[in-house]
Design goal:
Layout (H helix, E strand, L loop, with lengths): L2 H8 L2 E4 L8 E4 L3 H7 L4 E5 L4 H10 L3 E4 L7 H10 L3 E3 L4 H12 L1
Parallel strand pairs: 2-3, 3-4, 4-5
Antiparallel strand pairs: 1-5
Length: 108
């Protein structure tokens, strides 16, 4: 399933990117160094970190998309960098847990 299809079904708001990447898993985490070491490529990354460092990690790990959960803010600088690097970002007010459960039900 493409990130855009998943986002549409789960009601995530698009912030940046085309969402054409295939989703192969899900990863939850806010500690950037941990995500950089552990998140599998193709994952939806659920986080409250909406800064440029988040975009760098998503690009480095070749993640399907980033979902900024819990209504956390997304920096304007992060949006600019995401557009430059082709990183898809969505936002939602739903909790990280709720999103993870929903994603799990959609991709299994």
């Amino acid at each position: 399933m493409k990130a855009s299809e998943l986002a549409q079904k789960l009601g995530w708001k698009p912030a940046c990117g085309d969402g054409e990447n295939e989703v192969t898993g899900c990863y939850c985490g806010d500690l950037l160094s941990w995500v950089m070491a552990k998140a599998p490529a193709g994952s939806v990354w659920l986080t409250v970190m909406g800064n440029v460092n988040c975009v760098a990690v998503a690009s480095l790990r070749d993640l399907a998309c980033v979902v900024i959960t819990e209504g956390a803010p997304l920096d304007e600088a992060a949006l600019v960098r995401a557009a430059q690097q082709g990183v898809t970002i969505y936002t939602t007010d739903r909790s990280t847990y709720d999103c993870a459960v929903a994603v799990s039900g959609m991709i299994e």
